[in-house]
Amino acid sequence: MMLSDTSVAEIRALQARYPVARSALGPALYVAQNQLGWLPPEVMEEVAALFELDPAEVGEFASFYHMYNTHAEPGQYHVEICTNVPCMLRGSGQLADRIKARLGIDWEQTSGDGQFTLGHVECMGSCGTAPMFACTEKTTGKIRYFENLDSEAKVDEALALITAGTAFETCERWPAGPYRHGGQADTNFLLARVDKPDSQKIESYVADGGYEVARTIVSGGKTPAEVIEEIKAANVRGRGGAGFPAGQKWSFLPAGVYPRYLVVNADESEPGTFKDRMIMEYDPHQLIEGIILATYAIESERAFIYVRGEYYYAAQQLENAVAEAKARGFLGKGIFGTDKNLEIVVHRGAGAYECGEETALLTSLEGFRGHPRLKPPFPAVAGLYGKPTIVNNVETISNVPHILRHDAAWYKQWGTEGSAGFRIFCLSGQVKRPGLYELPHGVSLRELIYEYGGGLTDDAGELKAIVPGGLSMQLLDSSQLDVTMDFESVQKAGSSLGAAAVIVIGQNESMVEIARRTVAFYREESCGKCTPCREGTGWLEDILERVEAGAGRTEDIALMLYIADMIAGKSFCPFSFAAVWGLQSNLAKFRGEFADAIADATATPVLPVRPTYRPDTGVPSGMTTPSLPAEEKYNAPTVRR
Amino acid sequence: MPDLVNLTIDDLQIAVPPGTLVVDAARAAGIDIPIFCSHPKLDPLGACRMCLVEFMGPRGSRLDTSCTVRVSEGMVVRTDTEQVKAVREANLAFILLNHPLDCPICDKGGECPLQDQTMEYGPGFSKFIEPKRRKKKHYPISDLIMLDQERCILCWRCIRYLEEWEDKPQIGLFERGGETLVDVFPGQPVDAKTSGSIIDICPVGALTNRVARFRYRPWELMRVPSICTLCPVGCNTRLDERVHELRRIVARENPAVNDEWICDKGRFLHQYVDHPARLTQPMVREDGVLRAATWDEALHRVVEGLEAAIEAGGHQAVGGVASARVSNESAYLFQKFFRVLLGTNNVDYPDGSAVSATPGGLSAITAIGKSDVIILAGYDPSEATPIIDIRIKRALLRAGAALIVINARGIELTRYVDDKRVNKGAYLPVTPGDEAKVIDALTTAIRQGQEQAAKGAKKAADKSAAPRLVQIAAAVLGAAKSPLILYGPDIARGARGRANVTALSNLATTLNHPEALAYIGAEANSQGARDMGMLSNALPGQQSVAEAAVRERLGKLWGAPPPAEPGVSYDEMLAGRVKALYVMGANPAVEPAAAETLRGLDFLVVQDLFLTETAQLADVVLPASSFAEEDATYTNLERRVQRGRMGVTVVGDAKADWAILTDLAGHWLAVEAAHHAPEVVAEVPDWKAKSAKRGRKARAGSGPEHRPWNYGNARHVYEEIGKAVPFYTELRWDDLGELGMQWSAPLAPRQPRKAEPVEVAPLPALPDGGLWLVSGPLLWDSGVLMEYAAEEICNLIPPPFVALAPADFASAGLTEGDTVTVGSEYGSVSLVVRADDSVQPGTAWIPAGLVGAPAETLGARRAEPVAVTVAR
Fold first, then answer.
1. Residue A128 CB-half CA count within 13 A
2. HSE-up of B557 (CA within 13 Å, CB side)?
3. What is the per-residue burial (b if ≥16 Cβ within 10 Å, else e) of B362-386?
4. Are A283 and A275 contacting, i.e. CB atoms less than 8 angstroms apart?
5. Which residues of B471-490 are buried (b: 16+ CB within 10 A; e: fewer)?
6. What contacts B312, CB < 8 A, 6 or more positions away?
7. Average confidence (pLDDT) over A362-387
8. Which of A332, A333, A344, A340 lies closest to A303 in space, CA to CA?
9. Which residues of chain A neighbour B107 with C-beta distances below 8 Å?
10. Which residues of chain B does A539 touch, with a Cβ-Cβ cutoff of 8 Å?
11. What does pTM read for this prediction?
């Protein structure tokens, strides 16, 4: 046995947390990885035995998620730099150069002393505090974010902390404390408490009147149906990206079918979004109160918070908060002294963007690869473990206590007809003051970028392009600054409000590079199920890489448009749209840049050489063939990659 | 019909049952929708995106996968729009991006759905100039299957097959996105027993058959529909021949029998057909050595030898034993030859008359999927009949059936009795020979439950003395509405077997489902051999030899009635009750005791494919043809009569068994004729004259009028079977078609339907330190055919072993891999020992048919339980 008795006991305990043991597969692999540093096949076999699974089922699960080391053991400290577009716009390239120089290693290398491994990752939810790296301590599995690393001195300081071995005394972001946030004074609700001392503690939350709404309503202040009606009336649209009205979703549950589950989607992975992280790290009780109210409304006794694996500190804060609330009788059996029960399980994912899609999230939570599944049946009818399930975003659920503290009319005093209320806008990219801004729906991009964000950074030049709703949404250009940020207006402008993640791109950026980096993300994060996304995204990246390398061809623009068109909407889940909207709008609005890059081509495209499947025997022939030169040996072509 | 859903596909109005997938509805209407991941027998997935079609709705049209959308009333679908065409073209371009296009060296080339669809719907040229992605090429994922990850297009069919049908998810998707691979877990080859099915359903050449690899190009093959003769399921197969060699076997669809799956033995075990060791000409023994002979000479020697034996010891001195793998035609003529020409009922096959079988076997294979409780008594489907095994798993995992296993060993399916995904079942361990006791206890417990319910006792005051497991099983069965009780030969032999089967029959009667009881034989044509009367105690049509009316009826057909005196059984014949023996396709000499008997015979004829241990002892050896070389019929375990067709030309001078028997009868009758007409002796060939002279005294003036055997082909024989066996009359040769026909169960001879008392002798005392020998079938055993199989398959045969319960293993102070001596009153063998928790304490498990036949040597096939000792 490679697994220690403690690890086995831990895994057994994890299995007991879920209605179906297999759900604990992901957490169990973390236990094994923390013990051994990585997951060699032998240990996966042992885990498989504990779950009564075939080893192949564990192998395929582990290799899907990027946070499991299935190929090699990393160094003690795994430094992973986010290189996605928001970080790229704020100097992640420079950060990488600095770190490479300091550690003396390149991408995917481990330092000679086994201390450091360098890798790059996709968006970590630090877009407002870019550039950054996340560091994983191999022996404990702890992850800490090091942010705002915009100078040599800060990089040195961060690395020194890690080298000194004291970096993991806490997993709170470095530098500590909530990152920049602000907004309109009269809509400061969701982030109102984050600056208070010990804002994440239950004492502080209760002192601010927390859990009173939940107590009142659960004790009979409103019936579940009344709660659903109120949320429906408030027209709270989902904050995850699709904007589906939460109350309406809740009312889809089939009558009389139990158990029901609430799954909170805390897999905040859309590049440009970092709002849920703030709530979970600095005001987790707000979310838990929202969960209590939501589960009361949908008559569920068990909720899961699926937190993306990288959000280690957020998961810790949630675990603590759940324990605190349980100790006070707000969770567990007979909450608030009523006959209602509620258990909350905090479940960490392991690095897969696709798991933000609700059916893929449920599949992942059940202990499988994060592939989306067939709809219908929709999760509200047959979701987690085949039972009626509501999946809502963290911010959506966090809105619930505020609305129920007042009423739907109160909430609707802000926002527009179709987009009620206020929300947290994530502002990142080349602005002076990136951060979270809590504002009513309908604020204009100009106001957001120039008033709250302070305008573009000095070296960015003029505004060139804006991503209004997260990296997967269509780009807007500088002529569209007066578009207001509500679902209807952004849609009218040719894009989507999505998760209200605004990425600002300045004049000096290459749109070809933006396109390539965007497509690379979707190539990296495609789950691999459907042909168009799996194959098409890689093809697009290959072409863009070639164009960037100066080997573009005139026909490449039309080809990219064709490929993008044949991906969009042709796959199983909305990923196919997300993967190409950025590129399509980029090509539509900034086609000239692509044409210029192609016109400036200096190299000719390298035509692929077909691989040789029959290796040369190396044995000289005893025969002579007159048509072949005697001395010249046939050289098998080699493959470029 | 009111139950149909109406929809329109490409302007064609069609009506299909509700729940039908659009892709299937289109197929039924003759509209081709290209697919890769979709498969009629696998759950919808929607991954490959080939089948996108346009759905017209009030808010405009949308694209969706026809393999995941089910039909609805008034649905309008178009598969022929510009958009659909463009999407198919693009999707094929995507699929081909990283596909290696090594078609010229790919086994699938020529029968490849990817090639075909590219021709039909593809772009015609590639816009892709980037380098292709490299993955692992041609490496084995089991002894039988090769994987090429570059060719794989990630349709998940193999993964889903193993998951949905085998419940053995041994192949999975690894990595993700563009790096996604299909693979096995490191060091864990695929070992599902029907794993080869994934080769058939792979839409590209990613999975190839290691035995058949590079031995054909698909377009060169002659494809002949046939039947597998390796187990009684009778899976439908196709024989692929090229230049007179059987190149491979693939599954053929028959929803009633094997869906479109076959087991690995049926697929990969065929090289024996073309093996150079095949017997190609008759042989006769001269001066103690076998030498080649002509058919005339060899058959004459047979006539002479049998005549001499009858002369010396009477009709009961000769006998014939056969294998139940032979065709109906051969079995029928075999018994006819002995009954009519040799005047004896001494014909039998292993597990023939010794076994208490149900007359009609299983009501239908598809009944498995409709039953709610399945009882397996002394029958291990996983090893004996893998296709039944996957049907049972499907019933358990998908149709809500529960499983009860009554066996001396925890067979593979035992894992489902306590599986959370399956309704609760039970495993009742039994002591070999004492099964009836447990079955009886179960019946009693059920009856008590029924009586209590009848009395209206609200609380089932459980005073039952039955053990807990029996109570659980009784509770499961008490609620059964459509139970199925399957048992095998291992608990049905001899007097104890009769008691067991009576107990099972009582159980079925108690459950009010007497038809639920089904015997599953060991060999391919067990049912047919029984129907043909290849039994010492029964005539064609499963009629008792004792029935004078039946003998008379057959006498009219045959020209001479069968003898009234009952024959001796297989075991008795091999224990020395006959002086001359005719062995057709069986190999009794692997058992040392039987070999001893064979050596002591006056005359031995062996008719077989190879010079088996038995053939080596023979006076005359006759070369027979394999199933692949002859037209014939076989009757499977659900009474389905199916035609096997000639797929390859027969080797050398070998002949079909029935043809040899016809020729032999011709010789015999010629000699007989000579006996009765001495005046024409001068006109018969020299050898006939000689015989006639010698036999004249004994024969002159007696003997019936024999009719000549004019069977020019198997069909002629089959037509006579229709006259001899009443329930075959309806099944005309021409009507059998490619899917076969079942004979009607109500025509089967009546069985007792009343509960009978079970009388069974107490088990003999187990000697000190002794263990009861438990044996049973193994798929990859080392039978005669396996000896001549491809190397890849031979790797699957385990080295001979004995397995003990961990407790017995530990208390004997053994270590894994020790060589031990296992002894019984019949013999002793040296085996490697292992601990196995599926083995019950107090027993020793040695599978049947291992190399060197250790179980058989120790007496495993005997009707009485055998005690063995295990010593280092």
1. 25
2. 19
3. bbbbebbeebbbbbbbbbbbbbbbb
4. no
5. bbbbebbbebeebbbbbbbb
6. B579, B602
7. 96
8. A344
9. none
10. 94, 97, 128, 130
11. 0.94
Convert the pLDDT of each residue in B619-643 to its tens digit.
Answer: 999 999 999 999 999 999 999 999 9
Residue A264's DSSP bridge partners are A305, A392
Across the interface, whether the CB atoms of A535 and B187 are under 8 A apart is answered no
CA distance B255 to chain A (A): 27
Residues of chain B with Cβ-Cβ distance to A542 below 8 Å are 130
Q: How high is the pLDDT of residue B792?
A: 87
> Scanning the structure block, which residue is given the tokens 């759950």?
B43
ipTM value of the model? 0.93
The CA–CA distances, whole Å, from B367 to A472, B91, B399, B501, B517 equal 52, 41, 12, 21, 12
Give the pLDDT confidence of A254-292 residue by residue, as tens digits: 999 999 999 999 999 999 999 999 999 999 999 999 999
> Max Cα separation, chain A?
99
Q: Is B723 left (phi over 0), alpha (psi -120 to 50) or beta?
A: alpha
State the amino acid at position A272 in one-letter form: G
State whether B91 and A531 contact (CB < 8 Å).
Answer: yes
Are the CB atoms for A289 and A214 separated by under 8 Å?
A: yes
**Minimal Cβ distance to B131: which of A44, A532, A639:** A639
Contact B179 A525 (CB under 8 A): no
Kindly report the nearest CA distance between residue B166 and chain A, in angstroms: 12
Selecting from B86, B100, B171 the residue whose C-beta is nearest the C-beta of A56 gives B171
Torsion of CA A115, A119, A122, A124, to 10 degrees: 20
Classify B433 in phi/psi space as left (phi over 0), alpha (psi -120 to 50) or beta.
Answer: left
- pLDDT given at position B779: 96
Q: Say whether A59 and B186 touch across the interface (CB within 8 A).
A: yes
Minimum-distance CB partner of A529 among B47, B50, B183: B47
Q: Under the phi-then-psi rule, with left for phi > 0, alpha for psi from -120 to 50, and beta for the rest, what region is A119?
A: beta
Amino acid (one-letter) located at B408: A
State the nearest Cα–Cα gap between A350 and chain B, in angstroms: 13
Strands across the sheet containing B423-429: B423-429, B402-407, B373-377, B483-487, B517-519
**Pairing relation of β-strands B640-644 and B632-635?**
antiparallel
* Helix (H), strand (E) counts: chain A: 24, 14
Q: Do the Cβ atoms of B172 and A56 come within 8 Å? A: yes
Of how many residues is chain B composed? Answer: 872
Query: In chain B, which residues have their Cβ closer than 8 Å to the Cβ of A640?
Result: 131
CB B792 within 8 A of CB B822: no
Q: Do A539 and B97 touch (CB under 8 A)?
A: yes
> So what's the pLDDT on residue A82?
97
- Is B71 within 8 Å of B104 (Cβ atoms)? no
Cross-chain Cβ contact A641/B133 below 8 Å: yes
Helices (H), A386-510: 394-405, 408-412, 445-446, 487-492
